[in-house]
TrEMBL record:
Protein species of origin: Lojkania enalia
Transmembrane spans: 38-61, 107-126, 138-159, 171-189, 231-253, 291-311, 317-336, 510-528, 548-575, 605-626
InterPro entries reported for this sequence: Elsinochrome_Biosynth-Asso (IPR053018)
Keyword terms: Membrane, Transmembrane, Transmembrane helix
Upper classification of the organism: Eukaryota, Fungi, Dikarya, Ascomycota, Pezizomycotina
Coiled coil: none
Protein name: Uncharacterized protein
Keyword Membrane (UniProt): yes
UniProt superkingdom: Eukaryota
PANTHER family in alphabetical order: INTEGRAL MEMBRANE PROTEIN (PTHR37577:SF1)
Length: 636
């Protein structure tokens, strides 16, 4: 509870004014260490960063990309599967079952910590409304609750498997999510006022000491907003929070995301595949008319591939980690920028440190306690590793190896790639209502640069790409040649367009889009800190640079990437250098060599060209966006 000398009846007669410049008798900004003290802020921030670090460690070492719901339906995100297979092949250390158990318990502990943190700071803020908690302190409450809530959501995503077997705990978490989301959304509403911490001169002055309860009363008045950036930022923030909690709730009830994939991906994809199949048959027919159908077919296929890449990334746990990192960084920057604004005067000019508010930086018992309490989750994590349940898990795991491991070791022996080939199913694939995978035929040894035909992995295991075991090896590269006999052009994957994750061009598309997301997020954080501290999310959603980049240049860059790959097939075939680019050194000597000694000059050139293409697309999209946005590209 706040100090009684800070608790006074709020005066809200100014809320009916369109412009509050020169407002008289403004309450001063007084310190409130219980909300924005240095120890409180550090304690909440470090807890969020500790959770983020643990979730990243959990993802790299323990996370299982294979999911199964209560009805037995399975789903594996191929991006997570292949990325984790690569990372775990590089990392020599293999976590024990005891470590996995302790990691899961630790994530559960920290998720509860973030839930309690978010609820505590919001309840503390609401309890001080009648004591005229200032807009400045309410903003801090909102941002602490912001990244605490998103950290909690991400932890829930990582614990989907745990809650599948603990339905009672799942119901409790769902109820907690509803409460936390409701409190946070209501807390965001007053931040849309044109007078709210007005450093951009939208409503006539910067008055951080004005009571927050007055802004709640202003919600029903015409003076609340005139459609400026503040209300857009608030609306976007509410939308982001609402959609994030709805998505997390759906995934908690259905970890395979069967519902969302059915209505947002599978059903629309069925119509798109029928269209592609129609264009494929027209473009594959004989005569001059087939050439006319080539361009719409290639453009449609490129759009289909880019959309599938976007869906794979959106459904992956990798994006969850990226989004959590961005949300925490965003909340941290906004939080500390808000604390720095205490030194601004009513005209928005920085006057240096506010001597009154400096009291919040004093280390007292109330500020030291939150940092000391951070030892509790750390001790709980250590205890989770050392307790008897974790030891029992390890003993059981060693004593009774799973049948999956035995099966995997029996089927993961190297296969002669010359004996198998990925091909088309000549009987069933022509039926647009049939979505069964294609057959397997003999094929060559070498990975291809082309857009090969569809379906199963060429690794001798005959494992369906979309239904692998929990921790499978990475998807093999396609092994068909550039051109099949009778074809004069690169052959694209055929209907029913099974998953493309094993194709190198598809992997590069995913890598390109992930890099684009990271660059956009990094630039957004940089501009948030350097350009506009208080406009919020609407600054980026209404900014010409970001609109051109995200809506125009980013899709164009992905299309150009596929075009370059397609043209490269022609060049490689014409030059006859496929063998030189793809042949491994082991194939000529017949003896096993370490990975680094298998690299040939051709392989080096091949990988360098792939990476140069991705780097070139990134530079092209960024600098073209800046050029098209104009010299005032940061204006709204």
């Amino acid at each position: 509870m706040a100090d009684t000398r800070h608790c006074h009846k709020p005066r809200c007669d100014w809320i009916s004014l369109d412009n509050i410049r020169g407002l008289q008798d403004v309450p001063p900004l007084l310190p409130n260490p219980e909300v924005s003290g240095i120890g409180v802020i550090l304690g909440f921030s470090l807890a969020a960063y500790l959770t983020l670090g643990l979730l990243i460690l959990h993802y790299v070492t323990v996370h299982d990309p294979h999911r199964i719901n209560s009805r037995g339906n399975e789903y594996t995100n191929t991006l997570d599967r292949d990325l984790l297979a690569f990372l775990r092949s590089v990392i020599v250390w293999t976590p024990s079952r005891r470590f996995e158990y302790a990691m899961e318990k630790s994530v559960l502990i920290l998720s509860d910590l973030q839930l309690v943190t978010g609820l505590a700071i919001l309840v503390s803020g609401y309890s001080q409304l009648n004591c005229a908690i200032s807009a400045y302190h309410w903003q801090i409450v909102v941002y602490v609750a912001w990244f605490s809530s998103f950290t909690f959501l991400s932890a829930m995503a990582f614990l989907e498997g745990y809650f599948q077997t603990n339905s009672n705990m799942r119901i409790i978490r769902l109820c907690s999510m509803v409460i936390l989301a409701s409190l946070l959304i209501v807390a965001l509403l007053p931040t849309g006022s044109q007078n709210w911490l007005d450093l951009v001169d939208e409503g006539g002055g910067f008055y951080p000491g004005l009571p927050t309860v007055c802004y709640f009363e202003q919600l029903v008045l015409n003076t609340y907003t005139h459609g400026g950036p503040k209300v857009w930022s608030m609306a976007v923030s509410v939308l982001v929070v609402g959609l994030s909690y709805i998505r997390s709730g759906i995934r908690l009830l259905d970890p395979t995301a069967e519902f969302s994939r059915q209505y947002f991906r599978a059903r629309p994809g069925l119509y798109v595949k029928r269209l592609l199949y129609f264009l494929e048959r027209r473009a594959g027919s004989k005569g001059a008319r087939a050439f006319i159908w080539q361009i719409p077919y290639l453009v449609s296929f490129a759009a289909f591939v880019s959309t599938r890449v976007a869906f794979d990334i959106v459904e992956s746990m990798l994006l969850e980690v990226i989004w959590l990192s961005f949300a925490i960084a965003w909340g941290t920057i906004k939080l500390y920028d808000t604390r720095a604004s205490a030194g601004y005067n009513t005209d928005g000019e920085d006057m240096g440190a506010n001597p009154e508010v400096l009291e919040e930086n004093t280390w007292s018992f109330g500020q030291t306690l939150p940092l000391v309490l951070l030892l509790l989750p750390i001790m709980s994590m250590v205890q989770a590793y050392l307790d008897n349940d974790a030891k029992a898990q390890a003993i059981t795991h060693k004593a009774a190896p799973s049948s999956k491991e035995a099966t995997f070791s029996a089927t993961s022996a190297p296969a002669e790639l010359s004996s198998i080939k990925v091909g088309d199913n000549n009987d069933d694939s022509s039926n647009p209502r049939n979505s069964m995978p294609c057959s397997v035929f003999p094929c060559n040894r070498h990975q291809s640069l082309q857009f090969p035909c569809t379906c199963l992995a060429c690794d001798g295991t005959f494992v369906d790409i979309d239904s692998p075991p929990p921790l499978p090896p990475r998807s093999p590269y396609r092994s068909a040649p550039f051109y099949h006999p009778g074809f004069s052009t690169p052959e694209l994957p055929k209907y029913p367009y099974a998953h493309f994750i094993a194709y190198p061009w598809y992997k590069d598309q995913i890598f390109l889009l992930v890099l684009q997301i990271l660059i956009v997020a990094a630039l957004a954080l940089y501009l948030l800190n350097a350009v506009s501290n208080f406009l919020g999310l609407s600054f980026f959603l209404r900014n010409r640079l970001f609109l051109i980049w995200i809506l125009g240049m980013l899709p164009l860059g992905m299309f150009l990437h596929l075009v370059f790959w397609y043209v490269a097939c022609w060049i490689v075939h014409w030059a006859g250098i496929e063998e030189w680019l793809l042949k491994n050194r082991t194939e000529s000597s017949g003896e096993w060599l370490p990975r680094w000694r298998r690299i040939t000059l051709g392989k080096t050139v091949y990988w360098c060209l792939r990476m140069l293409l991705i780097a070139g697309i990134l530079l092209f999209t960024f600098f073209t966006s800046v050029e098209l946005a104009g010299p005032l590209s940061l204006d709204i």
